[in-house]
Design brief:
With 466 residues, the chain is of the alpha/beta class. It has a domain at 57-378: Metal-dependent hydrolases (TIM Barrel, Alpha-Beta Barrel), CATH 3.20.20. It has helices at 78-87, 105-116, 135-146, 166-179, 190-202, 217-234, 246-257, 269-272, 299-308, 348-357, 364-378, and strands at 3-11, 16-23, 30-32, 45-48, 53-56, 58-63, 68-69, 72-73, 90-97, 123-129, 151-156, 182-187, 237-240, 262-267, 314-316, 395-405, 427-437, 440-444, 447-448. Strands 1, 2, 3, 4, 5, 16, 17, 18 and 19 form a 9-stranded mixed beta sheet that branches. It is globular. The two termini are 36 Å apart. The relative contact order is 0.18.
Length: 466
């Protein structure tokens, strides 16, 4: 059904104007000052966006939905995660495929795809995890790229599980450069982390608060430096996921300054919560264990400043949903056994707007750029991340007058499958009122009205670094 959005304040990464937007089908077909509804097709759905923003659909470039990890599985399915994403204004998700080191790469791709296809309500694509590189897996990676998966994921962490060695890293980056693939990377140092974990546990330091000292800022910064050296020598384009500290950002910036093709991501938790949250009593701190870990509160304003300057390109979530009662408590006797991750796919846009835009830390253009446009550009999501004639009709009518609170107890607002929210009781100043995906109204009046299974795998052409 065609839609006409009238009287909205249209905000993109560069533009700010009031206009009407008409979508005859799955793309934007007209953007004009005043579109007469009588000039539109019969049955057009008219949305009054007076007093509201109209943003391009938001893109989360780093989520985990199907995730075997640390002896358990993430709680969300593509049904729950995509619904939560859409209600939070996110219209496209990029999931990390994370096969084990002995798993077959093609089989892993088909498994992850099968979990999403025909189930997701939002559009999606993947980063293909490279946890082993040999002749057989290389052939499979080439085939997976031909299927439109134009980004890889490597871990410089999780020794003996997901991590790659330097030979595998070098060969992965060489292949990526040949194929025009962006390599996303979790940057730490698996040996340093492993040794420090052993020392802390041996000293009886087992609580959640000791997760951060086991992988301090120096370890993350060294991991970024390491990746940049390999990227420089291979010519590959790289993307540093979830940078948590200024030291890591500076390492990437130094490499970019000398010509390395690199991009920097921050995830929502590293902007709004700090290490003190892991010190909450009664094992509550386990809710905030993620890797890289939450840092000292002094890091937060530095990360906001790097985002405001656009040195940081994207804001993602690293959504990794594990229950507190039945899963996080696996690590009661050792922080190393706490499943890592903070569920936030449904909260990213609203918290970023509330804590960033309304406080003046970032402007509206940076908000859109970091939460949508840059992810589309870097990862080749053609037609997404902007508002223009011919672009996908992925649109968010956003109500800045909305006031509410986050609570996992309120199932009308908490749509992720977890039994807790890391942001319990936080106030929100704004929400997505209406959300469309390729011209289909998926959220209306803040309620999900879409069709499950209507999301599609986004076709991605060869990546261009220009």
């Amino acid at each position: 059904m065609p839609i006409l959005i009238k009287n909205g304040r249209v905000i993109t990464a560069t533009d700010d104007y009031v206009a009407d937007i008409y979508c005859a089908a799955d793309t934007i077909t007209r953007i004009e000052k005043n579109i007469d509804p009588n000039s539109c097709a019969p049955g057009t759905s008219i949305i009054d966006a007076s007093g509201k923003y109209v943003f391009p659909g938001f893109i989360d470039p780093h989520v985990h939905i199907y995730l075997p990890f640390m002896g358990t599985y993430a709680k969300d399915t593509w049904e729950t995660a995509s619904r939560a994403a859409l209600l939070g204004g996110t219209t496209t998700l990029i999931e990390m495929i994370c096969p084990g080191k002995t798993d077959d790469a093609m089989q892993a791709f088909e498994t992850w795809l099968g979990k999403a296809q025909g189930i997701s309500a939002c559009d999606f694509t993947f980063h293909m995890g490279v946890t082993r590189f040999d002749d057989a897996s290389e052939k499979q990676f080439r085939e997976i790229v031909k299927k439109g998966i134009r980004s890889f994921k490597v871990f410089l962490a999780y020794k003996g599980a997901l991590g790659v060695d330097d030979r595998e890293l070098y060969q992965t980056l060489k292949l990526a450069n040949e194929l025009g693939v962006v390599v996303t990377a979790h940057c730490e140092n698996e040996t340093l982390v492993d040794e420090r974990q052993k020392e802390l546990l041996a000293a009886g330091k087992t609580a959640p608060e000791f997760h951060e000292p086991s992988r301090p800022v120096q370890v993350e910064a060294e991991g970024v430096h390491h990746l940049m050296t390999f990227a420089e020598l291979t010519g590959a384009e790289v993307y540093v996921v979830h940078t948590s500290c200024n030291e890591a950002v500076l390492e990437a910036q130094c490499a970019i300054a000398r010509g390395v093709k690199a991009h920097i991501e921050v995830v929502l938790p590293h902007l709004v919560v700090d290490h003190s949250y892991t010190q909450k009593p009664g094992f509550e701190g386990a809710k905030y264990v993620m890797s890289p870990p939450l840092r000292h509160e002094s890091q937060l304003p530095k990360m906001w400043a790097q985002l405001a300057s656009r040195a940081i390109a994207t804001v993602a979530t690293d959504h990794a949903p594990f229950d507190f009662e039945s899963q996080k408590t696996m690590g009661k006797d050792a922080f190393t056994k706490i499943p890592n991750g903070i569920p936030s796919v449904g909260n990213r846009v609203d918290i970023l707007y509330t804590n960033g835009v309304t406080t003046g830390k970032i402007d509206l253009h940076t908000f859109v750029d970091s939460a949508s446009t840059q992810a589309a550009r870097i990862f080749g999501l053609k037609g997404k991340g902007t508002i223009a004639v011919g672009a996908d009709a992925d649109l968010v009518v956003y109500d800045p007058a909305y006031r509410g609170k986050i609570s996992a107890k309120d199932k009308s607002h908490h749509h992720m499958a977890t039994d807790y929210s890391a942001f319990e009781g936080w106030e929100l100043k704004g929400r997505s009122d209406t959300v469309t995906v390729r011209g289909q109204i998926m959220v209306k009046g803040g309620n999900f009205v879409g069709k499950m299974g209507s999301g599609r795998l986004v076709p991605r052409p060869a990546i261009s670094s220009t």
